[in-house]
Amino acid sequence: MEIERWHQIENLFYSALEIEKSEREQFLKRACDGDAELFQEVHSLLVAHEQPGTFVGNSAFGLGMQVLKDEQTNLQRSTLGHYKIIKPIGSGGMGEVFLAEDPRLGRKVAIKLLPHSFLEDPSRIYRFQQEARAASSISHPNIAHIYEIGVEAGCHFTSMEFIDGITLRRLMDQRRLELQEAVNIALQVGSALVAAHKSGIIHRDIKPENIMIHREGHIKVLDFGLAKLTDRISDHWNATTIIDAVETQPGVVMGSPAYMSPEQARGLEVDARTDIWSLGIVLYEMVTGWTPFHGSTNMDVLAGVLKEEPTPIIEHIDNVPPGLEKILKKMLSKDKDERYLSSSDMITDLKKLARSLQLNSDAILDHETRIPLRSNIPQHKQQTIGFLKQWISSIVVTPIRDARGKKGIERILALRNVFALFVATVTLAFLLNEIYQNQAIQIRKQKKIVHIAIVLNGEVYYTRNIMQGFTSKLDQLLEPTPYVAHYESTTGVAEAKQNKQNEAAFKSLLAKFPSKPDYLISVGTQVSEYAYQHYLNDIPIIFVGVTDPVRSGLIRSYEKDPSRGTIAGTTWGGSLKLFLEFFTQAFPGRTIGYVYNPGLYHQDELTKDSLLAEAAQIKPPLTIIPIQVDKPQMNEEQQASADMFFGGYYWAKHFQELISSNKKPFVATEISNVYKGGAIATFGTDSIELGSIAAERLLYVNLMQGTPLSDLPIIKPEKPVIGINLSTARQYNISISQEVIERADKVIP
Amino acid sequence: MTQSHGITELLIQWSDGDESALNQLMPLVERELRRLARNFMGKENPGHTLQATALVNETYLKLVDQKRAKWQNRAHFFAIAAQIMRRILLDYAKKRHRAKRGGQMQQVSISERLAFSDEKSEELIALDEALVRLSAVDPLKSKIIELRYFGGLSVEETAEVLEIAPITVMRHWKLAKAWLRCEMGSRSPF
Prior knowledge:
Chain A is α/β, with parallel strands linked by helices.
């Protein structure tokens, strides 16, 4: 079509539109002046124009979004460029990783999709590509080779050597490393560093997650050349913004604080010596089991990196070989000028050390010394322990030794967070108890006491998504091992879910309340699901024991409206009274409905009666309606653990003492739980003094017999699991005396 | 924030007439669209345009430094999104078309088939061809269709991008729509 012709058509079209419909044809005929084709064209356009439209905000944009989404989800099962994606094999701060096949070369590769958030800045992409290309040119047996850096469907990716093995992190989770192994690994990583540094490549993010142990036993360092992606530091970051980013953007990989060199932490220019530092931290961790700088927050960790001196390893392990301490000191010198000048100097010393340990260092570098990957722990437990440790060391439990010398209060617990605390304690404690104390029932039968106290903290509330992912993953991990089944049958969750009758019973009993209660207390996981329905109908409910769906429902509701002040706790037995007492004080004059399931207390008639008696004494009087939920069927073993589980009742007495020993009001609630001889207790109080007493009691009150812990026969658990973590102590304003810590340390192996 | 810096700057440059800024903007915006599609299009009805454009709007607000950007920049951002969408949809439609001809439909998943019918593929290919023809004689009208159809822009937003009055947009829209109806017959989406 000619442009001129088009303009002609256009003009006629618009002119015709100005004219009454009935006269348009006449107008057109005149205007076209015998040009039948022109008439036909404009006429058709006018007819088309008059057709009822179908375009009502109905653009293809949404469809495009759908296509984009499909393309990306299809990645997981299809192709990326010429690569055939086999399966996802993990994801980290640096993006998702897939196992893929390169059909052209018939080899397996790992494909790393770089997260979009790192690629905001085109110049960053450029710098990254430059460095990654440089890294891809290094060929070294201890460096995972980068094959390709590419862009496909808007996704930046790298393809690299697929290493069939596990990360050093996982190996350390599985078992403690021998000194020889640790030095061997450090040597191989060091040897990778020498090669990279010679090519001018700095890794910047050496950590156990980036060190792979090949099935054959040798070491491969991952992600050389990729750190540039996350290296915002050298641009315009300083220590404050780093801490800020680490604190506020957990998804942003800034290098892991624990492995960051002081110059990285300060946001200064880094050189090859930053890798020497990080390897020093890894070596320290492999030898002692701990990174030298730790703390409950990233800020604490960074503060340690900048200011503290690492505890000498002699305090962690016996028989420190001469030389090791010196090497670590030199690797971990805060002033980089005092560190090894180069990675080759470091290797020289490490080799000397290896020789003194009768390791044939040449053989090591020839990869003949193999690191055994399997330990004798059964597979499913290995997974679980590894998994738990991953969470526990990073977000949840800080072992008691971390509390040493650190006192003080940072935050006052918001009462509303209580239910989240409970979520953490119950879920984790069950598992930890199972894992570390699978003999608990037998031990119980032998009338011995196992000391396990795990106190988890309210920070879990802030990481609730992680926590939810965690619990669901746990279920996957543990099934079909007996643990989950056991757990469920003990608490009756499974039964409650199946028993529709309970719901009917709950409803009919609720109808018996003289008037709509201002508050309702739901005791027992079994009833919580039904109580939750009423919570949704605007009856405020205190939940004492909840099932998982209720828990997540509560969290959602709470997020929507924190003012509802949902409280849920697991106050089995005795502490219920405190719970109620607290509540009546906090909301005087309100009617409180009390729904509980006496079936839960079948183990102990005394419990049931005294609970009812206690509740009856509470002023203003409570409306008390027991709801009988069918008792779960238990075998002998389950019965025994349930027995222990409900032993928390005996806490009442001690708590009473605790409170009467101090005139100050007990403001927050207590949450306690006892399971298979393990106790989980968390205290809330507004007073440091009271908190201290509570903490001591927690450690030293014998839950079952009321005698001091120190007088009891001690069975050492395999791993240190007794402890109040520092964050919890802070959260609850509990200061822990040095004496308590020292005594507790004796219990901890 | 560092991330808003690049996009804001480039948008300003582009709206100031620096055409090379567009080349740099395209991949950035495409990436955002992909991220958006992956993160937010999951549970809800994904094909819903109103929801999708609202999300892009949110993304824009998040990405771009509001203090520095001009009010027209938002429309420019959407204009880029429209252009990208057109290409993505067309690529996809062609792929579908080829798959069908080659008898490889089993490779297209059920959910994809539901969201994207064969008729839709045909329609998109025909529309693209028609728009190419239209732009040869009247690029403005072709652009307006692109913005409105592929970008989900309103008349006012389209006017902002093209720096013309909304009433002018309507005027062009009328003819462009009628012309596409004639060209594409029943396959016209308008």
